[in-house]
Every structure is written in C-alpha cells, then in structure tokens.
Amino acid sequence: MNKLMTLMTICCLTVLIATVGCAEKGSLTGVYPAEGTITLDGQPLEGAAINLIPDSTGSDKRGASALSEAGGIFKLSTLKTGDGAFPGTYKVTVTKMVIEDPLTEEEKAESLGGKRVRDVVSVNQLPQKYASTQFTDLTLTIEATKNNNLKLELVSE
After folding, report:
1. What is the torsional sign of CA 97, 92, 146, 25?
2. Cα 98–53–154 angle (5° rounding)?
3. CB of 63 within 8 A of CB of 114?
4. CA-based nearest residue to 147, from 84, 96, 103
5. 93 and 139 in contact (C-beta within 8 Å)?
6. Do 31 and 142 contact (CB within 8 A), yes or no?
7. pLDDT tens for each residue of 64-83
C-alpha cells in the first residue's frame, strides 16, 4: 500500500510538472486592456472591423482586433474577447462590410433547401485606403498600462 501511494504521488507530480512546464512555454502574457472610439468624418462608426498588425516582427508579437459597437466604441482582443493587446506600435486596417442586394425571404428559403440562388456580394463602405496595410495611414501605440484609451479618426476621401 505504501509503494502504491508513493508511485501515485510520483505520477501526479510528474503530470503536474509537465503541465506547468508546457503551460509556461505555450502561454502568452503581457496583454494590456485597450479600448477606444472610432469615427468617420467626426461621426461614431458602428460595425467596423478593426485590425491591428504589429509594426515589427517577433515571436511575442501578435495582432489584435475589434468590432465597433454603438457610439463607435471598441475593445481590442488578442487571446480572448476584450482582453486588449500587447504593448507596441501597430498599423491599423478598418473595414465595414455590408451585403449589397441581400437575398429576399423567398431566395433565403430556396437556398436553405440546397438550391443555389445567386451570388451575394459584400461591399466595403469605407475608403479603400483603410482596408490595406500598404495604404493605411492609421497607427496605434499600446502602452504597458491598464489605461489604453484609443481614438481612431477616419475621413472620407
């Protein structure tokens, strides 16, 4: 019985050490809360997809993203919803996609039956320069602090 308890203790400790070791290697820490507002021509922009792309590369650099809500308010997410972003400077892309000529109720019913009705096209409602890392002039800097209040101001072309 004593040998069994010793063997079980060793097995449990081995699993615990392996789990902690793997978690430390694979986990990412250092994400800081980051939220803000986005406007287009001074008006709050709801439904915009915001993507942050790290300016520099590195193993600990990851992008962040958000979807703006009513009032143009957004919270960045990296590892889980609303957790924030890693400190650093980012290029920012923004799109707001809407479906052009959406399906009618009759067409929706037909498509649910497996019948191909027609293609649906989504269109970006924002100036194209904001959709590409190559042309965007938007940048954000995330500080290693718990108070990152961000502001994105877009202008029509």
Report:
1. positive
2. 50
3. no
4. 84
5. no
6. no
7. 999 999 999 999 999 999 99
Rounded Cα–Cα distance for residues 24 and 26 (Å) = 6
> Residue 94 is which amino acid?
V
Express each pLDDT in 116-151 by its tens digit: 777 778 899 999 999 999 999 999 999 999 889 999
What would the two tokens of residue 40 be? 């287009």
Tokens, residue 25? 């290697």
Do residues 32 and 146 make contact, with C-beta atoms less than 8 angstroms apart?
yes
Three-class secondary structure assignment of the chain: CHHHHHHHHHHHHHHHHHHHHHHHHHCCCCCECEEEEEEECCEECCCCEEEEEECCCCCCCCCEEEECCHHHEEECECCCCCCCECCEEEEEEEECEEEECCCCHHHHHHHHCCCCCCCCEEEECCCHHHHCCCCCCCEEEECCCCCEEEEEEECCC
Contacts of 80 (CB under 8 A, 6+ apart): none
Q: Measure the CA–CA gap between 64 and 61, rounded to whole angstroms.
A: 10
